Amino acid sequence: MRLGTRWFCCLLLTFSFSASAQEIRIQVDLSDAPRNIYHAQLTFPVHPGDIELVFPKWIPGNHRPSGPIAALTGLRMEAGGHAIAWQRDPVDMYEFHVNVPSGADKLDVSLDALTGQDSAGGGGPAASSNLLDLNWNAVVLYPKGARSDDVTFVASVTLPPAWKFATALPVEWQGRYEVRFAPVSLTTLIDSPVIAGVHFRRIELTKGETPTHVMDMVADAEADLAMSEKDIAAYRKLVAETGALFGARHYRHYDFLYTLSDQVGGHGLEHHESNDSVAAERTLLDPDLDMLHASLVPHEFVHSWNGKYRRPAGLATPNYQEPMIGDLLWVYEGLTDYLGGVLATRSGLLTDEQYRESLAETAAELDHTTGRTWRPLEDTARSVQILRMLNTREWENWRRSLDYYPEGDLIWLEVDSILRQQTHGERSLNDFCRRFEGGESGPPKVVPYTFDDVVRALNDVAPYDWATLLNERVNATSTHAPLGGIERGGWKLVYNGKPNLFTQALEKLAKFSDFSYSLGFTVGEDGKLHDVIVGSAAYQAGMGPGMKVVAVNRRRWTPAVLHAAIKSAQGSTEPIELLAEDREFFKTYSVAYHDGEKNPHLERVSTQPDILGDILKPLTH
Ligand SMILES: [Zn+2]
Known about the structure:
It is built from 20 helices and 32 strands. Strand 4 and strand 5 form a beta hairpin. Helix 3 packs across helix 7, helix 5 crosses helix 7 and helix 13 crosses helix 14. Strands 1, 2, 4, 5, 8, 11, 13, 14 and 15 form a nine-stranded mixed sheet that branches. By secondary structure, the chain is of the alpha+beta class. The site of zinc ion has 5 residues, from loops.
C-alpha cells in the first residue's frame, strides 16, 4: 500500500508544485539567536493536490545524514488563509505529506530550528549571547525529488539589533535589521552560511583585486578580534599561495567566515565561496591556540578546490536526500589535510619546526593505532556515517576514528616525495594540484571524479604504479602507519624525553596528559584514562579506558608524580604500581615499563636530501 501511495505522490509532485522557475521565499527571524531558536517562514508556489516537502538529510561537508531533524519544531502550514494538516512520512522522518486545498496557489510554512545542540555537524550550539551561525539546511524544506540546482530561493534574515553580519550570499537590499539576498539556487543557499555578531571585524585581504577575499570575524568579546599584523600578512600570503598552487579559482569572491568563541560548536565547514570556521575564543591572543588552529582556515580554504569543485562521485549528489558514499574521503579530506598544513607553513602561519612537530605527533599516533590491523583506511571513510556516533575516545586506537584525515597527511606526503624523486625535483604534487584542481577560473561548479581519475592524473605528472601504491595504502590492513613519505622526505620518526610542541600545547589546553608512547594511555586531569593502547604496558597490566588512576606507587596521582615514576622506573626492574578506581572497585595494576619518557619528533637524516624542507618552501615571494 505504501509503495502505491508513494508512486502516486511522486506523479502528483510534478503537477502540485508550480513551475520550478517560481521562487520559494524564506524569511528567517534571528532575533532569538541568543536563546538558540531560529524562526523561519517559507512560502511555496503550489497547485492544489498532494505534495511532499523534505528537510535536508545528507549535509555536504558532513558526508552523513546529519540534518538536524529532531531540532525542527513549531511546524505549521497554511493555505488560502486556513491552517492545513501535515503528516510526517512513517518511514522517512525527513519527509512531510500535505494536501493543498483547491483554490490555493501558495503554501505558507512556519517552523523553528532549535540550535542549542549540534546544528552544523560540529557538536555545539549555533549561537551565543553575542554571535550566531545560520546554516540554511536547518531552516529549509524543499519539494521532494527536486534537484537542489533547480530550486530557487529568495532568502532574507532579521538580525538582533546592532549585530553585523557576513556571508557569501549576494545582498540585494539592506534595512536597519533586515537583509534580503538576491535569488539563488537551493545549492547556493545551503552552501552559503551567515555569521553575525555584536563584535565584528572585516579585513580586506586582496583589496582592489578580483576576486576579492575578505576575512570576516565575529567573537564573544571585542578584544578577541585582535588579529595580529603578522597573521593578517600570513592570510594574504595564503591567498597568493593558493593562486600559485592551483592556478585557478572556482569562486566569484571569497569570504573567510571566522568565529572566535568557546560557546558555540567548534567546527570548520567548507563551502565554494566561503568557509565557516570556529576556533577557541582567545585563538588570536594566545600563541599556543594560534599554533593549534593554524591549519584550520587553510584546510577549509583548500576545500573550495578539493571537495567542492573536484568532488568524489559518491559525494556529488543531486539533492540532500540522496545517500552519500564516502569511500574517497582520503582524497577529499586527506589531501586537503595535507595541503592545509603545507599551505599554513608556506604562508607563515606555522614555522617549519611547528609543522614537523605536528607531523611527528600525527605519524606516532597513527603508528600506534592498533585498529589498522583489522580495519583498512577506506573503511574509516566508508563508515563516516557511524564513526561520529560514538562520542568517546574509549578504545579509539583499536576501533579507529576518522583516520582518513590524518593518514591522508602521510599518504599524500609519500605521493609528493615519490613524484619529486621520480622526476629529480622537476615535478611534484603542486603539478597534480594544478592539473586536477585547477582548470579554468569561474563561478562554482562541481566536477566529480573516481579513483581511476586520481590515478590517471598522477600518471600524467609522473608515471608510476600509483594504483598499486594507493590500493595498498587505502585497502590493505597493516601493522604500521605509512611512514614512507617522511623517510623519502629526508627525515625519520624518533621518540625521546623532549616534549612535542603540539602535544604540550594541547595537553595544557585540553587538560590531559599523553603517555601514549610510554605507558600506553592518555589520561584526564581527574585521572580518568581516555584510551589505552592495545598491547601497551598498561594494557598488558590489565588497565582499560574509563578507569581512574588514584595513586602512583602509593602516592596520590598527579601528572608530575607519574612522570617522576616513569623516570625512576628507567633504572630499575620494579614495575610502576598504579592504583585505579573502576566505578565502585579498586585495584592495583603493576605496569612493567622501563623505557623512559617517549615523545615523537622528526629527526633529519643528513645523508638524504631534505625533500620535506623543499615541500614547505613558499611558491610566491
Ligand atoms: Zn575538511
